[in-house]
Amino acid sequence: MMGSTVDSMYIQQHLANERTFLAWLRTALAMKGIGFLIFGIELATDLGTPLTRTLAAAFSVLSFFAGMTVLVIGTVLFFRNRRTINAQQFKASGPAVLIAGIAVALVMLMLMIYVLLVSV
């Protein structure tokens, strides 16, 4: 029989932590993808105005950095949670979730503004 490690004592918690990290990763990739998609559509069509092209570029940059922010937060939380699960000192991550929520809200707001300007 193999020796037991600290990680093996909390297998379910560590698996949940990994699933949560993967959710952060999917969110970050979706945020980046939305920005690139809008910018690609804007470049591929000749229907845009200078304002919508500038807005699409700004949206793409914002969504990239928001996605990177979410990815960094998710990665930091994964390793912090891993450490605190083993130490039996887990703490909820309020400020990090708030920052990620603000980043997602900004991307959604920019998307709404872009769609409204393009549809007019």
Automatic annotation (TrEMBL):
InterPro entries: DUF202, IM_YidH-like. It is a multi-pass membrane protein. It is found in: Cell membrane. Residues 13-83 form the DUF202 domain. Its main location: membrane. The keyword Nuclease does not apply. It comes from the Bacteria. The keyword S-adenosyl-L-methionine does not apply. Keywords: Cell membrane, Membrane, Transmembrane, Transmembrane helix. GO terms for cellular component: plasma membrane. This is DUF202 domain-containing protein.
